[in-house]
Write a structure and sequence with these properties.
Elements: E1 24-29, H1 41-50, E2 55-59, H2 60-75, H3 89-106, E3 110-115, H4 126-146, E4 151-155, H5 168-182, E5 186-190, H6 201-211, E6 216-221, H7 222-229, H8 244-258, E7 264-269, E8 271-272, H9 289-297, E9 298-299, H10 312-319, E10 327-331, H11 345-371
Parallel strand pairs: 1-2, 1-10, 2-3, 3-4, 4-5, 5-6, 6-7, 7-10
Antiparallel strand pairs: 8-9
Helix pairs in contact: 1-11, 2-3, 3-4, 5-6, 7-10
Amino acid sequence: MSSFDGQASLPSPPPSEPEVHTSFRPAIATISVGAPDIHPLKKKLDVISTNGFSGIELFYDDLHQVAKELQRRDSRTPVDTSQQDNNTTDYYDIKAAFQIKNMCEQRGLQIVSLQPFRNYEGLLCKDEQARRIKELQHWTKLATILGNDVFILIPSSFLGKDEAAGDKERLVEDLTLAAEIAHPVRLAYEALAWGTHVNRWEESWDIVQRVNRKNFGICFDTFNIAAGVWADPTTVSGRSSEEADQMLQQSLQRLMSDVDPDRVFCIQLADGERVDPSAAFLHIPNQPTLLGWSRNSRLFPFEEDRGGYLPILEIARAVTSGIGFSGWVSMEIFSRTTRDDSPMVPSEHAARAASSWDKTIKSLEETSLRKCP
């Protein structure tokens, strides 16, 4: 799995989406079909389109890789010195954003989000905070170029407690400022299971309510919900405790009763692989165990044959039909398999995602039909 030479002609029109009537729109994160520094974005967009997806979550690393290619190309030709700041990172990011938007339009793809804007809230270093605010302004410009309804995903910070404060009021203050800076571009806040101060969806939802800005909402990720309350890859069972099922049920009941679907900007689907509890990537010094697991061992839903074991369908039902959500549902996996330099990586991962989407959406729709009188 990998990329081809990036020079292939445009693919034939994408096949129609699954025949199942649905209010959900299929998207996939570009990171899910290949590593940005190995597999060219053009190839990834080709296979995403031909496998029936209509939207993408654009990983910033993919955009920046295109920017670096543009800068290398310019370095081999005379540069127009009248173009102010044309050698800066921001300048080439902007050029890349215009190019990527055009590439997506040619393939019938909508850009859903730009992500992830990591480790922003609660910064203790004032200089670093000022730098990140400037960076957010840049990302807002990129999001505006990429489309009229692109949101920026902000995952909860996983910096050390000596780098980021955990005071709720401070987090709300920082994220309120982010919403004001980005307006009218939307921001979606996501609780990472290994977040230092915010690692449960309940905590991120509380912050979304406190920020109370129309352009500030939430993103639910089935892997992070499961990893936060149900799973532990370092145990033989793969579960956090004997009460894992009960704890998950209680959490999902709260979710379905408390969350306003209009504040949910995206749903992300991923399972987790049951791995050897002694796997090296689970035990990297100064790195959260769940982070190592997430970066190496996510799977698409319905991939039990590859080791998937989390209660993903149950969570997916709660965060979609359970709250009355309609909109983008994105396949988002991180995996050691995407770093294989085989040229078949993007094609194989996109095909796996399409098969997973078909099985998932049919299961979700069957649930909705059973609820109908």
